[in-house]
Design brief:
The complex is a heterodimer. Chain A is mainly alpha-helical. Chain A contains eight helices and no strands. Chain A has two domains: 98 residues, Orthogonal Bundle (Rna Polymerase Sigma Factor, Chain: A), CATH 1.10.1740; 74 residues, Arc Repressor Mutant, subunit A (Orthogonal Bundle). Chain B is elongated, with a radius of gyration of 23 Å. Chain B folds into two domains: 48 residues, no CATH class; 136 residues, no CATH class. Chain B contains seven helices and eight strands. In chain B, helix 5 packs antiparallel against helix 6. The chains are: A mainly alpha, B alpha+beta. At the A-B interface, helix 2, helix 3, helix 4, helix 5 and helix 6 of A face helix 1, helix 3, helix 4 and helix 7 of B.
Chain lengths: 200, 226
């Protein structure tokens, strides 16, 4: 097999959706680009759900490979590429955590700040997004927020949640629905104008 | 069981296996649920960004790409990642040093730059100007230091760079060059942005130029907020 010289290739100006279109054509560099864009968020999410670095790596790997296999079925009119990709990772993480029930009781290992990263800008951007979403979460009524967090980060199914919270399943369903719908509004506001409120 | 009610739980991956199968079968037939799911999924996906995001181990990327290659029989050989020649990077830095003075000092001090970015983003009195189409935000602190936060900024084409400009009525003044790419979405501008001034971003040849030569990719005005 011929060795090709390292050839810089730019994905400049390609939207996330365009990168997925290249992934669908078995373009490995495009898969690498997708990882560079979302690998860190995916890992953070998997770690939050699984509380175990090795398992989190597994979830990220399997999530990206699921994206690799399913990229030709991606429908940009249905979802943003980031949402689509993170769904694969999240599903895998939830599957794993449901098989690893015992881990839930353990506290999340304390980390000394986030690990070494190659870019101050990426750190800042992720912190910016994190604060934006956290601020929106804080504005939800406690019960809705609790339902979203236990489901999404805890990996609990709605039946498990109903049992754990001692509530009818219909109540859990409506809290999840109302919470997500409100979160969507709050995030749209903080994306739009004049949504920045600060206490000074 | 009313399957319409399961949309939020599905978006959160909070259904068990049987429920998931049932709901997916329903989804294939129900346009209303597909639309609702699309919108609720965006909100659920945003939850991923609310978590701490430590860097994953460096070898994870290579492992994923290797495994992907194994799954496809007829793949092209794996090329090494796009490498920015050090010399080019040094040239950019040197040029910026001449043009921008103080900016260059922070270019070399990652920590210093990070602190400056954090100071601007964390300034409760900062003015925040949303870019058209929600593509990002221009944050200007009280002392005029400015950070451009982009939703997405592709890598600059080979041989090119992004260059920021500040225009307060007269000719746009250079405010720093940037490589772009997923790791450079937060741009600390090398020039203060007064109230009423506009910030522009153009694509220029490597090293940057003295005056913009291309149509701005974006333009945002720093408007005083009461």
């Amino acid at each position: 097999m011929r060795e090709y010289p390292a050839m810089p290739r730019s994905f400049a100006h390609l939207s996330d959706e365009a990168v997925v279109a290249l992934v669908a054509r078995s373009d490995q560099e495009a898969l690498g680009e997708l990882y560079d864009r979302f690998g860190r968020v995916a890992y953070g999410l998997a770690l939050r759900v699984l509380r175990d670095e090795k398992l989190a790596e597994d979830a990220v790997q399997e999530g990206f490979l699921a994206a690799w296999r399913n990229a030709d079925r991606f429908m940009p009119e249905r979802a943003k590429a980031s949402t689509w990709l993170l769904t694969f990772v999240h599903r895998r993480a939830v599957d794993l955590v449901r098989h690893e029930e015992r881990r839930r009781a353990e506290p999340l290992p304390q980390r000394a700040e986030t690990g070494p990263s190659d870019s101050a800008e990426e750190d800042a951007w992720l912190r910016f997004e994190r604060e934006r979403v956290q601020a929106a979460l804080r504005q939800l009524p406690d019960q809705q927020r609790e339902a979203l967090e236990l489901a999404y980060y805890g990996g609990f199914s709605q039946s498990q949640l109903a049992e754990r919270l001692g509530q009818p399943i219909g109540t859990i369903k409506s809290r999840m629905f109302a919470g997500l719908a409100r979160l969507r509004e709050l995030l749209a506001e903080s994306n739009g104008e004049s949504a920045w409120t600060f206490t000074t | 069981m009313d399957l319409h009610d399961l949309t939020a739980a599905y978006a959160l991956d909070a259904l068990d296996h049987d429920e998931t199968r049932e709901y997916e079968a329903h989804l294939a037939r129900c346009e209303r649920c597909r639309e609702e799911l699309a919108s609720l999924s965006e909100a659920a996906g945003a939850l991923a960004y609310a978590t701490e995001a430590p860097a994953p181990p460096a070898e994870l990327r290579a492992r994923i790409l290797q495994q992907a290659q194994r799954e496809r029989a007829n793949v092209v050989p794996l090329r090494s990642r796009w490498v920015t020649p050090l010399a080019a990077a040094a040239a950019v830095a040197a040029c910026a040093a001449i043009v921008l003075g103080a900016w260059a000092a922070s270019l070399h001090g990652k920590l210093d730059r990070q602190q400056q970015i954090a100071a601007v983003l964390g300034d409760p009195a900062a003015q925040r100007n949303v870019l058209a189409d929600g593509r990002g935000t221009l944050v200007v602190s009280r002392n005029g230091k400015a950070v451009l936060v982009m939703k997405r900024l592709g890598s600059a084409p080979t041989g090119k760079t992004y260059e920021a400009w500040v225009s307060s009525g007269g000719a746009p003044q250079p405010a720093g060059t940037f490589d772009g790419g997923p790791k450079h979405r937060v741009l600390l501008l090398g020039r203060h942005v007064p109230t009423g001034a506009a910030v522009l971003l153009t694509v220029e040849k490597d090293g940057g130029v003295d005056a913009p030569t291309t149509k701005p990719l974006l333009s945002v005005r720093n408007i005083a907020q009461s």
